[in-house]
Amino acid sequence: MNHDFRCTMSRRAFLAAVAGAAASASMRGAHASAVDERQIKVAPGEVRLNGAGGPSTAVWTYNGTVPGPALRLRQGQPVRVAVENGLDEDTTVHWHGIRLPNAMDGVPGLTQTPIRPGESFSYEFAPPDAGTFWYHPHADSLVQIGRGLAGPLIVEEAEPVAFDGDLLWLLQDWRLTKDGQIAGGFGSMMDASMSGRVGNLVTVNGQAQPDQSVRAGERVRLRLANASLARMMALRFEGHRPVVLAIDGQPCDPHEPEDGRLVLAPAMRIDIALDMQGDPGSRHDVIDDFYDGLAYRLTTLVYDNASPIRPHPLSAPLALPRNPLPELDFANAVHQEIVLQGGMMGGGKLKGAGGMMGMTMPGMNGGAAWAINGMSMTGDGHAGMAPQFMLERGATCLLTMRNETAWWHPMHVHGFSLSVLSRNGEPVPHRQWQDTVLLAPKDTVDCAFVADNPGDWMLHCHVADHQMAGLMTVFRVK
Ligand code: C2O
Ligand code: CU
Ligand code: CU
Predict the structure, then answer these.
(1) Which one is predicted more confidently, 314 or 96?
(2) What global pTM score does this model have?
(3) Distance (Å) from CA 395 to ligand 1 centroid
(4) What mean pLDDT do residues 286-290 have?
(5) Ligand 1 centroid distance, CA of 10 (Å)
(6) Is the pLDDT of residue 349 over 60?
(7) CA distances to 209, 288, 290, 317 from 293, in Å
(8) What is the mean pLDDT of the chain?
(9) What is the C-alpha R_g of the chain?
(10) Which residue lies with its CA nearest to atom 3 of ligand 1?
(11) 265 in ligand 1 pocket by Cβ < 6 Å?
(12) DSSP state of 176
């Protein structure tokens, strides 16, 4: 099994590729129309998350591995991914963060009939944006993602961007029993109404605490993706100063994160430039200290003994090329508001499909624990769900999200990237666009997007338990 997502191109080959890019630019027009064919089989498998000596864990896999294969696609080039379902329950694949046609979005009931056991479905789209994305099921999401189904999706820039290396860490959080098997109890009332199913083992590309070998003096692009069900992360690179280049696949103004901590909520991605300024032979831990008192070592940067590849560090990193996002029209924008309600200690009553929740325990018996604007949409998606709001195609929507609960929620919008304008009245710097916006307890965030993509789109919390227990809605672009 290959867990090393490092680009295998040598530096010389890489520079040759950069030099050749201009020459081949005219050929690319011809290439762009060829359909890139990929195959993914969803099936049970076995992996060793703690290395060769550790226990074997029964998981669900894409093409036999956890995480699934890294799909590297070209910006603008059509791709067809044939997905075969080898599970004995329905599944779908959702291409998280990709702005694609609604019918390819992978939401069961809403955008497609689910893929039945033994059946296949071909997803076809041409990714308009370069960047770091991921794919995961959107059927029985809590269980299927919790059993390992997740994979990285990289869309390469039309013109290559020069780094000494291109690394990817797909982070997964597992709740394991003592003998290394995935614990049952998915969707418990505790998880559903509180922080969600936070696990007890975090893996990087399917391995717990693997070493990351690096060379002194190199500048790598490191793509971080949090594919956890519920675990929030805040990564610190000891002895290093990461520079944020992109969030959720969308380039921003390069900046160092506040306190040097990279906050990654479930489903979020951050691309950083990392200058390897440590000494040859040195080791530097990467720590996740999001939860007070529960800091742990995620991985370690291990320098080889080779002398630095360049005598002086490179100067400030160049910004990544911006993606072709539509122009916001604030003068004619329509305003919509989403209020997040419920959870333990949240107060208030929830009105769900099953009537008033009243004062019963939230999340009981797979019921609703959360609501958006007073409505609880539970599960993974339904046919015939009334949209929360409608937008005219092409309209700019100013979306305010208000968190009335006592919990964190990474709110995710399908089919669009949101320009994040302000948080609790303070402007958000660095021109950030995100598909997953983290709301701290009681936060209010203002975003904007152009409703240029017709269809019924999901908007939900990406803590899988929260989504399943009602923190989800749909809006329609006509
Ligand atoms: Cu990655 Cu509806 O989600
Ligand atoms: Cu999504
Ligand atoms: Cu949530």
Answers:
(1) 96
(2) 0.91
(3) 23
(4) 98
(5) 35
(6) no
(7) 19, 11, 9, 34
(8) 90
(9) 22
(10) 96
(11) no
(12) B
